[in-house]
Amino acid sequence: MKIKNIGIVGLGLIGGSFAYAFKDKGFVIYAYDIDKGTLAKAASKGIIEGLTDEIDVFLNFPLDLIYICLPIIDALSFIKVLGERKVAIPITDSLSTKFSIIAAAKKYDLLFCGGHPIAGGELSGFDKASRDLFIGAKHILVKSDNLLLFSKLKEIHELIGMQVVEMNASLHDDIFSLISHLPHLIAFNLIDTVLTENISALKYTGAGFKDFTRIAGSDPVMWANIILDNKDNIVEKAEMFIKNMEKWISLIKENNMSSLISKISDVSNRRRLL
Fold this sequence. Notes:
The chain is elongated, with a radius of gyration of 21 Å. The protein is about 55% helix and about 10% strand. The protein has helices at about 15-25, 35-45, 55-60, 70-85, 100-105, 145-160, 170-200, 205-210, 220-230, 230-255, 255-270; strands at about 5-10, 30, 50, 65-70, 90-95, 115, 140, 165. The protein has two domains: about 5-165, NAD(P)-binding Rossmann-like Domain (Rossmann fold, 3-Layer(aba) Sandwich); about 170-270, 6-phosphogluconate dehydrogenase C-terminal like domain (6-phosphogluconate dehydrogenase C-terminal fold), CATH 1.10.3660.10. A five-stranded parallel beta sheet has the order 3-2-1-4-5. A three-stranded mixed beta sheet has the order 6-7-8. With about 270 residues, the chain is of the alpha/beta class. Helix 4 (about 70-85) runs parallel beside helix 5 (about 100-105) and helix 7 crosses helix 10 (about 230-255).
């Protein structure tokens, strides 16, 4: 299996950054995006061999790999299109949840291996894409029956400086509901609470509040997609968070200084190890 020509579907932050990173390593890049403004911006950079907003034109490019970098609902729709056309080209993706897209690809008998680059930020769009975004970042590759495709995907992601980690889909969605999806939900809720309780307090926010809530500035459509797609795991983790918060509240009500110091010390020391 040779991967030389990579077709990227969706030229946002992640798709655009992959375009830069793979191009720098000698791959030939093709791309599909429905936004003509994004296509124009990408064309001006001179890194993409072929650009289109038509699926059939995209699929007629000489592609060795299709890389889906879309919000979840759009990605699932694109998988359906590929399945209906019985596309035989190898496919991977960059979605933050894995179970649903792997199930969809299996339904249509597509040659698919799921992935998730652990990189990005709260800002989105091709304008924010960077050729250095993935250097040193982890890339989750989901266990696949197609060992050759898995091996080639591992190879090309390591080539652009990523650390590849193998994981199954269920474990992936469970872990990232805890360390990514729940934190976003908490940040959204904290800003919502301030807006409800005392919006004028936002005039006095310092670095701590801004750092803590940075991810609340993330793309609404993308995160609504993620939350609903992984809702069972997220609800479970949110309910665990509420129960744990109740323990902290009890210590506060009891004026339990020693226990508060002990708990804060434990988590503070652990945080410094990250």
